[in-house]
Amino acid sequence: MRIFLTEFLFIAFLGLAACRPILTSPGSEQRLRGKEIYERGCATDSCHGNNSEGIRIGSEFRDWPLVGKVFQQRNPTAQVIFDVVRSGGEKSLRALTDQQVYDAIAYELSLNDKEFDNLLDSQNAPVTSSGEAAGKPESGSLFPPPGNARLIAGWHAPTLPINVENTDLRIRLTQIAKASTIGQNIAPTGGSFVLVVFTLEVISDHPLEVGPQHLRLVTDEGRELEPKEIGINYPVARFYQQVIQPDYGTSALAIFALPESANLGCFKYALPIGQPIIMKLTS
Length: 283
Known about the structure:
Blueprint: H1 2-19, H2 26-41, E1 55-57, E2 60-63, H3 69-74, H4 78-86, H5 91-94, H6 98-111, E3 149-151, E4 162-165, E5 169-182, E6 185-186, E7 192-202, E8 208-210, E9 215-219, E10 224-225, E11 242-244, E12 250-258, E13 264-269, E14 277-280
Antiparallel strand pairs: 1-2, 3-5, 4-5, 5-6, 5-7, 7-12, 8-11, 9-10, 9-13, 13-14
Helix pairs in contact: 2-6, 4-6
């Protein structure tokens, strides 16, 4: 009788456990969504390797790894990863919404032992570390490190990210750095190249055509500088003319030549219609 009662209670306990709802978090649900996207488009033998280990040609990486110390050091935050992916022009990448890109990144970070309960999105990506080896990016630095630019350290960079929007467009400035040379290009005497990484999101209900012809870096004395077409070995694409849709934004790099004795004033995007979007770069 005692054995029967023990077995009955054990079976009843199992029944209660089976009926209890499984508690999930927005973060765990996001990783499940992102796993399919990541495995379909990122971890393949033609992209970053089936095990995300990267693909080499000789001793050099053709496609960098997506897991481990090297990946985390090159891409210290989720926003850096997003900017690299979102600037790409491949059809498979452009078919993903901004949030689907963040979903895939959330799963990618879990492979680097970074899991969180909250949803990864544009609001927290700039402060979400990619892993234990990532470290904290220094102000005025640029990631992933450009291959042919000599960056200038120790200058007083603005605090990022900076977000500004109007009724149609939101711009988020995510990285800004200075360089003395880019490839064979030498900055103006006494000046520097300014490299700006930013995202654009349509917040209206209709597509927008965007392009570098509307973009200016303004000095503190009001001089407007146009983007330069300078070749740089950097995974975030230079800003080019394109049409972006609601929920399908873009990330881009713009390069400016800052003259001698000039200081940063603001980052300006002038839409064909309506008020320009202005981001102050001084405190």
